[in-house]
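Hello forum,

I keep getting stuck at the same step: I have a sequence, I want structure tokens, and every attempt I make locally crashes halfway through. Rather than fight my setup again tonight, could one of you with a working pipeline run this one for me? It's a single chain of 151 residues.
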Amino acid sequence: MPPVVVRQAGPDDLEVIVPLFDGYRQFYGQPSELDRVRAFLKQRLVQGDSALLIAEADRRALGFTQLYPSFSSVSMARIFILNDLFVVPEARRSGVARRLLEAAVRHAREAGAIRLTLSTAHTNTAAQALYASVGWERDADFSVYHYGLSR
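Reply #2:
Ran it on my machine without issues. Output:
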């Protein structure tokens, strides 16, 4: 595989990221909704309220990760939530996800964050193995709860 380059995406990268993000959503059982995906990502990129990192090789998009800034009240410091990580099926197990994780760590450090946090499906054992292999630790102290709000 040609060298993989990870860089922060900007508004000009919207059409490159749309199919990746749509594939990510489909991985989690959501229908393909290209127009909604495009609108959602455009808003993130234009407003700059997330950091989208894209992995490419030979000018071909292979994957992305999206980081949302937040804060820890207890630590009184910036943190990032790694909300999305996706690699196209044909590039999986080739180191692309690892490169995206490394870039996410670099981005968070450069922004002065003290922590990155992520969650993944209990059934996504391949991702869990990757996270553990690069030093991420499963939280043993807290349980995650969600409260759904209707739109």
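Residues 22 and 32 are 6 Å apart (CA to CA). If your local run keeps crashing, start a new thread with the error log.
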